[in-house]
Amino acid sequence: MLKIIGLIFLLIMTDAGYGYDRITGKPFASRSEVIGQNGMVATSHPLATQIGLDILKKGGTAIDAAIAANVALGLMEPTGNGIGGDLFAIVWDAESKKLHGLNASGPAPKDISIDYFRDNDLEKIPSYGPLPVTVPGAVDGWIKLHEKFGKLEFRTLFEPTIAYAKNGFPVTETIAYYLKNSQKRFEKYPNFNELWVKNGSMPAKGEIFKNPQLAKTLETIALKGREGFYEGEVANVMVDFIQSQGGFLTHEDLSSFHSEWTPPVSSNYRGYDVWELPPNGQGIAALQILNILEKFDLKKMGLFSAEYIHLFTEAKKLAFADRAKYYADPNFSSIPVQELISKGYAAERSKRIDFEKPSQTDEAGILKSGDTIYLTAADQYGNMISLIQSNYRGMGSGMVPPGLGFMLQDRGELFSLDPDHKNSLEGGKRPFHTIIPAFVTKDGEPFMSFGVMGGATQPQAHAQIIINMIDFELNLQEAGDAPRIVHSGSSQPTDEVMLDGGTLSIERGFGSEIENELTNKGHQLKYEKGIFGGYQAIMLKNGIYYGASETRKDGQAAGY
C-alpha cells in the first residue's frame, strides 16, 4: 500500500512540473524579483547584463546601457542576433515624459524583384543563402538611439565587447546547444567554419571563444560611427561578398538606409496602456489579442484552466488572420492600424469564437477603411528602454562576409511572392517583421518595459505576460515563469493558409488533466521544447525598479 501511495505522489509531483519548495510566491516561480533603486538591466546573457550595469554606474543612460549590452550579445549570442540584423526599440524619455519608437529594420535590395524568382522557377524565397539578405539595420539603430538619448561617448559603449572579442569569453549552456545545432545548417557556406568551427566542432559549454574579426569591425564602428559600417571597407566587403554569391545587395542599398522614428501605438487593457510599434512588425497582434480577451472574466477562469487556454488560442487565431492579411511596410501600403486595434473591431471579431471547439480555418476581418534577443534597461534619471534585435532564423542567412566576424540576416524570407499581397516583395521595401518590443504605462507614467523573444510566439507571449500580471495578479518574475501557451499554424504574411486548426503547445506545468480537456475539445496538442520564448522585464513601482529574467534561457536581471 505504501508503495502505491508513493507512486501516486510521485505522479502528482511530476504532473505539476513547475514545483519549487519556496517559502513565498507561486510554486512555479524560479526566484524572487530583482529589486534596485538606481538602475536595472535585464538581458539573455549574464555578461551582457553586467556590461549594461557597468555603463549605468558610469553615469550612462538606460539607452547607453542597452546599446552596450546589445553589442555584447552580438558576440556572445550569435545564434540570436548581431550587427548583421535589425532592431526595434521603445524608449521612455524621463525629461519629456514621452515614449519614442524606433524602427531600425532594413529593406530588401532595390534591384531585387518577384520577377527574378519567377524567372528562376522559385516558388518561395529561400531560408538561407544570398537571396533573403536584407540591409542590416541594427548599427544605424544604435547610432540613432545614442544621438537622441545617449550620455557617454559612443566608443565607450563598444569597449567591453571589443575586449571580450579579443580575449575570449566562456560559452553558456543554452548558446552552446544552439551553436551545435547550427553547424550542419551553415558549414557548407563560405567563411562559416573559419569563424566558428574549431577542431571540427562549434564552441561547447564553458569553452573560451574569441572573435578577433568582430573586434576589428566593432573598433571601426566605434571610431567612425555610421560611416564605419554602411560605407568604406566594411560595406565594400559585404557588397562584394553577397554579389559574388548571387545576391543583390549594393553600396547604394547600404549608404541610403536610415532607420525611422515611429510613434508607438497603444490599447488600454483594464486600466493599463499597452504600447507596441506599428507594422511592419507584428506588435499590434498582441493588442488585438488583449482587446478580444478584455470582455471575458479571465480571473474567474484561472490560469490553470482549459477554458482560458481555449479562449486565448481562438483569440490568437483571429489576430493572426489579420496579421497575415494586413501587416506590411506602411511606406508601401496603407495599414489600418487604428481600426485593427479598436475596441469595436475586437468586439465584432470575438463573436466568431466557439467555446466548444477550436476553429479550423482563420479569416481576416473585413475592415471599413525567429530567434532573437530581447533586453531592457532603466537608469537613475528615470529613462527606460525596451529593445529587441535579431538575425531572424537563428544565426541568419549563412552569409558570412570574409574577415568581418558576423553573419548577415535572412529577414527577406518573410516577404510574400504574391504581387497583390500588402507584404509582397519589392526592392527597397521592408519585410514583415516578427521582433517586437513592448511597454506599459499607467496614468501616463511608466509602469513596465518588457519583451519575449521568439518569432511568432512574441505577440502571444506579450499578451500572456500582461494577463498574468493584471488578471492573475502574478508578480514580474512569476508572470514570466508561469507555463505558456503557443499556437502554431495560423495563416501567414508569406502566403501559408491555415486549413486544419493548427497545433497547440502548452508547457508541462499545466498538467495532464487540462491537456485531456483540450484534446476532448478538438485541439491538436504538440509538445516542443524551446518554442516558448525568452522573457525580460523591468517594472517601476513607487520609484523602485523591479527586474525579471527568463528561466528558459541563460538570462539575468541585475540592479544597483
Please, could you describe this protein's structure?
- The protein has helices at residues 2-16, 46-57, 62-76, 114-119, 138-149, 159-167, 173-186, 192-196, 212-224, 227-230, 232-244, 251-255, 284-293, 298-301, 306-326, 337-340, 343-350, 457-470, 476-481, 512-521; strands spanning 34-36, 40-43, 86-93, 98-104, 169-170, 208-209, 260-261, 265-269, 272-276, 371-378, 384-392, 438-442, 445-453, 485-488, 503-506, 534-541, 544-549, 556-559.
- Mean pLDDT is 94; it is low at 1-16.
- The strands form four sheets. Strands 1-17-16-13-12-9-8 form a seven-stranded antiparallel sheet.
- The protein has a domain at 265-369 and 434-531: Serum Albumin, Chain A, Domain 1, CATH 1.10.246.
- 36% of the residues lie in helices and 17% in strands.
- The chain is built from 20 helices and 18 strands.
- Helix 6 (159-167) runs antiparallel to helix 9, helix 13 (284-293) packs across helix 15 and helix 13 packs across helix 18.
- With 560 residues, the protein is of the alpha+beta class.
- The longest helix is centred in the middle third of the chain and has 21 residues, at 306-326.
- The protein is globular, with a radius of gyration of 23 Å.
- A hairpin with a 5-residue loop joins strand 10 (371-378) and strand 11 (384-392).
